[in-house]
Amino acid sequence: MKIWLDDIRPAPEGWEWATNADCFWRIFWNHVTWHGIESVEAISFDNDLGEGETEGWIVANSLLQAYIREGFTYVPILKCHSANVAARPRIEGYFNDIVKVART
Fold it and tell me: Measured between alpha carbons, how far is 95 from 92 in angstroms, rounded to an integer?
């Protein structure tokens, strides 16, 4: 299963489309609960998810916190497709931290 977090750009074929943070977490936890973290193949983030919505970098940070809390050791492919030049490195930094946490 692959999750595409973006409020405007539709998910590529074969990806689950999460248009906001709540939708992302619903898809992520439902799938992890029933199939395990290893069944998540890839996650791709946008940052700007619409006026008044939680931004992608916050979701990425929360994903890092979930890895720390749950002790996940498997890491899916993590990508950032956001064009936001300030948020993109922030999201990618959280992804790098997820990899480090999973390997310890």
Answer: 5
